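Field reference: sequence -> structure
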Amino acid sequence: MPFHWAYVWDDKLGFFERKDFSAMGGTIYLGHNGDDCPNPSPEMHFTVATTNGIHATLLRYCQCIGGPRSVLKRQLMKARLFPGTMRDPRTAFTFSLLKNFHLHNLESKKAAYDYLGAITRLTDNVCTADVPVSLALSTPQK
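Structure field:
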C-alpha cells in the first residue's frame, strides 16, 4: 500500500512523524502488478495525488522485453494512476481521487482548484507550501 501514511517515532523530536512510503526506502514498481521488476528503469521522483493527500514517491517503470516498456503511460494506467501530462509524466492522480472529485463536483459544484486545496490540507494542514504539489505553484507571482 504505497499511498498510506506511516507514522514513525523520531527519538530526537520526541513524537511520531508522518512519512511517505518512499521516505522509508520503498519504491513503486510498474509492469509486474506491483512486484519487483527484473529490468527496471532508474528511480524517478514522482508526485501522486490520492484521496488521503499528495505523496512524493519513487517510481520505476518496467523495461522488460516482453513487457509494455514502450508505452510508459499504459503502465501508469494499469497501476490505476492517471498521468498529469502525456509528455514525460512526473505527476499522477489515482483513479479513486478522480472519482471522488467527480462526485464532489457533481453534488457541490466544487472547482478543481478548491478540491486540490482540500487535498493539500489533508497532506499537511499547517505548512501547505511544503506539499509536493502546492497551490502556491499555480498562483501567479508578483
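Note: The longest helix spans residues 95-108.
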